[in-house]
Amino acid sequence: MKSVALAFAGLCLCAVAAWLALYATDPSVQASAAFENGDTATAVDLFRRALRGDNANAYYWADLGEALPESGQSKQARYCMDRALELAPYVPAIWVRHANFCFLRNDYAAALRSAARVLQTVPDYDEVLFNYFDRIVEDPERVLAAIGGQSRTTRAWLAHQIAVKNATAANLAWRRIASAGYADAPLAAQYVEFLLDRQSWDLAQSTWARFLGDRRSDYPAQNLLYNGNFNSEPLPGPLDWHFRSEPGVFETARGHQGVRITFHGKDNVDYYGLFQTAVISRPGRYRLSMHIKTEGITTNEGVRLAVADMGLVSEPITGTNGRTTVDLEFTTTRPRSVRVAVVRRPSEKFDNKIEGSAWVESVKLAPVVSSSQY
To answer: Is 304 in the same domain as 256?
Structure first.
């Protein structure tokens, strides 16, 4: 073992010696150190020496191009950066450096062309370039004009705008994505959730409805809940149903007759396993309803319909019941979202482990129309 350790130590010493030799002889390494220390004149001389030794090295040309402006030689710097691009037309790192060079000189058209080429090639520099765009390019339309023909890039830019909470740029990106056919359900859900967080109620609802297209059925014209009859598999995001199950305790599953909720008699369940967010874009009075039938629901606490974030719940349904309609009415004085849910509260009785099944069908949320409106 000792001999192995000595051999490893010898290799390390050789590596250090080799690096020191390179540092002592490679002008590009010395130039980079000088440039970092603010000695621009020395750095420029050393970068030129490096190029005399390897005139086809794109990195050396880029190094010199970045150093020259610091010594007042901007025209020569542009030639160096263009030469780097000619020598490395397929190297994203060189294109990133060219984009940065152009951004610093307010040449946005050239910078965006180089940035778009990088983004089209690899995702590695997304955040670097997107942050450049945020800081330097005031008009997001210019960014979109450069990258809008690239599906992956435009989708990534939307996700970035959501993360930095830039609603204007996010809206531009989404419109381009939707019109170009780049949208999918996860991205639509992400954008809609962003709009809900900003309380952009109308835009959130209309964006979701337009994305759904022919799938929307009576949403939102007649029912503010999408997929109210559970005809479709749920899509991701807040504006469709969410199912939650706890193995061995309760199960929530979509079937051919709505949703079946099954309690296995193992626990005093605090059930919150079926819910959807709905947008109410106008103040007024609203009615929430569902059709439900039950079989053998035990305990005094059965299944309830709820507007969870308003603290509204129906009376519990227990035992065995044929198809029954459950209603809740409420008034809102402002546009908002509400969380519609099917719930079961824990029982305070001794015999409180719930068992049995419920079938939920046709959940609907709509304005209450009074006779005076006719």
So the answer is: yes
**Enclosing domain of residue 311:** 242-367
- Distance CA(202)–CA(337), nearest Å, equals 11
Asked if residues 350 and 325 have their Cβ atoms less than 8 Å apart, the reply is: no
Q: Of 170, 196, 215, which one is at a domain's C-terminal end?
A: 215
For 60, 118, 257, 318, 326, the CA distances from 358, given in Å and listed in that order, are 72, 55, 11, 9, 13
Cα–Cα dist 253/272, whole Å: 13
pLDDT per residue as tens digits for the range 229-265: 999 999 999 999 999 999 999 999 998 879 999 999 9
The single-letter code of the amino acid at 337 is S
* Domain match, 171 and 34 both: yes
Query: What is the pTM (predicted TM-score) of this model?
Result: 0.85
pLDDT in tens, 57-90: 999 999 898 888 877 777 899 999 999 999 999 9
In a shared domain, residues 292 and 173: no
Q: Does residue 298 form part of some domain?
A: yes
